[in-house]
Amino acid sequence: MVSPVTLRLNAADRSYFAILKKEVHALATAGGFSAKRVAEVDIVVAELVSNLARHAGGGELFAKLFEDNGRQGLELIAVDSGPGISDLKAMMQDGASSKDSLGQGLGAIRRLSDLLQIYTQKDWGTLQLVRIYNKAATAAQKPGPVDIRSLVVPKPGETECGDGFYYKQTKEHVKLFLGDGLGHGPEAAHAVRTAIDAFKICPEDTAAENLRFIHSAVKKTRGLVATVAIFSMRDKRWRICGVGNIATRLHSAMSSRNHNSYNGIVGLNMPNTLNDQLLDYEKGQTIVMCSDGIKSKWDLQRLTGIQRYDLSLLNAALFKEFARQTDDMSVASCKINV
């Protein structure tokens, strides 16, 4: 499944709010949300950005459409660098406020959303994750053992993103691809889209063979760096292979293991020898993949307790702390419980 590029909206002050609300309204409408649900989205967005202005002096809002088990959803992440929330439990109650206001923001957001989760640290800031679906889940659409989330953002000022993430899931395998087209802009975006098209149809079950297949398909583009990670449900093992500077790490409660990529460029100069790195599964393990728009020394240990939160908050926290802001930026993460 393609992970769409995330809409990044400035909420530095109230002068941006009308444009921001209009953009998210259009996104929800395009996602097939009912008029009633779109109206509820409008309220949630108004509360999120009001909280940013009132409590943190502004911030930004990330928005994208996604699909979970056949349901269309809208994901919103409000990000700020304010003082943090000292008593989150109290602030979730209607009527509670640390400012001179009605104090209905978080309570209203919780009532109108399918998911509200908040990560906050003193003097670091706050991330508010909201998911809203266009319809209720059936029994067959309940969450499964695999959770995959991503945050893919263009370089500031660009309308197209040269990074791209895609995943495929069957009963036997979970297959992840993260690519970064050389440079940025339309040509980089074309390279990564071509790579994703090849990955979609590649029948191979080793990461190295997937990269070789992609390499043949993208030779007429400017090329890209990429990593493929494949989890075998039967063997309980990851097979990972990368070419170029996509950083991939496996995190568990007690350890962190890096994947070492090969030098080269997919589509231009691939190494003659490519082998999968085999890494065993551990319960509660999370695989995290980042393009070089995220600083190479990113470290989850600097984000206290983040592995206990939703993967979208983990991605957003890494972005907030380590994004370079000078290139396309992407973070993808996957957690499997088997």
**What summary fits the major beta sheet?**
5 strands, antiparallel
User: C-alpha Rg, in Å?
Assistant: 20 Å
User: CATH superfamily of the largest domain, called what?
Assistant: PPM-type phosphatase domain
End-to-end separation: 21 Å
User: What percent of the residues sit in helical stretches (DSSP H or I)?
Assistant: 25-40%
In the residues, how many domains can be counted? 2
> What is the averaged pLDDT score?
92
The residue ranges in which pLDDT falls below 50 over 5 or more consecutive positions are none
SSE-based structural type = alpha+beta
CATH fold title of the largest domain:
Phosphatase 2c, domain 1
Shape: globular
Number of helices: 7
How many strand units? 15
Portion of residues in beta strands equals 25-35%
CATH class of the largest domain: Alpha Beta
Q: Order of strands across the widest beta sheet?
A: 1-2-3-5-4
Description:
Strand 7 and strand 8 form a beta hairpin. It is globular and about 60 Å long. By secondary structure, it is an alpha+beta fold. The strands form three sheets. The protein has a five-stranded antiparallel sheet with strand order 1-2-3-5-4, with helices on both faces. Strands 6-15-14-11-12 form a five-stranded antiparallel sheet, covered by helices on one side. The relative contact order is 0.13. The protein contains seven helices and 15 strands. The protein has two domains: 134 residues, Heat Shock Protein 90 (2-Layer Sandwich), CATH 3.30.565; 193 residues, PPM-type phosphatase domain (Phosphatase 2c, domain 1, 4-Layer Sandwich). The longest helix has 22 residues.
